[in-house]
Amino acid sequence: MIIKDSEQMRRLTGSFYANADFSKIETIVRGVEDELAQVIGRDVMASLAQEAEGEEATMKIETADGQTLRVANREFNIGQDGTIRLGEGYSAYGITARLEGDTLHLANASAVVSCQQAVAYMAAMRYYRLNDISHETMGRKVKIDHDNEARPFEWQLARDDRMHLEEYYRALDRLTGALASDPRYWQTGSYRRQAGLIVRSAEMLTWLTGADESPWLYLRLVPHLAESQRFVEQAYGSKFDAGSIEAPYPSTDTLDYAASKAVALGAIALMGRRTSLQALPYGLMRLFESDGGGNRQEQGTMERIGDYLKQLSRDQHYWLEEMKRLRDAAAGLETTTHLQMPENDRHNKYMRL
User: Fold this and answer.
1) Chain centroid to CA 258: how far?
2) Taking a C-beta distance cutoff of 8 angstroms, is the pair 272, 280 a contact?
3) What digits encode the pLDDT tens for the residues 165-202?
4) Helix, strand, or coil here: 129?
């Protein structure tokens, strides 16, 4: 396990009691850790847990000629002392690597701490929910010292849950950012599935859609990005070449931009339609929350969510038509000006002359 005791829970969350019986939350911690391992890879999670216990994480390397190390189609220079410089962007996360024979020794402190924080916040929130009432052999009861305590209002509980979720997703963003520079993560199916996508990063997704930059949201969107890209490829025709898309910032008046825009908008619409509200990443769920405070806080209604998803689909349709227009113009064919037609409403049968 990546978290071992209540003192760690206290340091990571700031709210869990250090003298609490850890065995009461241990199964919840294991469950959250297992759920996270399904996304980032079980080998990666096991390696991070090994680091958390103070042991050195290792991975076997097949391609190393004494001067160059090749991992997941990337090449790195090996220093005289066996250390490997992963690059400026990678060193910012505090990753160190050293090669001994065919074994690569790694340390990624940022990924370990971020993973611990994510597990701790989610486990604590689930634990608190289970303990809002007392569970006894005679049934469930509420015990309270009326002289010194008061029951929280429902809106206060909802706000506390929301703050825990915010910290959970922030930790996941930091974890995903740190793992993007970790050779262990490059071996996972989660990373390999990103190959061939024209929307290649969370930064590019933010630029195309305006959503808050979230590496975790991008990771969860990968299967939907792949499906949306397949739809765009079919709309474009047989000459579509994902590898030729200029990245990360194609010019806004180009075919590359129109295709990338259609893929990104379509992926978010697919996730919104197919994922249960409880499972949606928080960066997407914030679109459906009220900005009100106190007891007037609202949850996103199905009507609001439906309107948002319809608008995404309309925007995607616009950029698909723009992509086709630019494709035809590049081929010297006659182009037509496309219009965003209003959605037909069977209840509105009137017209203005």
Assistant:
1) 24
2) yes
3) 889 989 999 999 888 878 888 888 888 888 888 898 88
4) helix
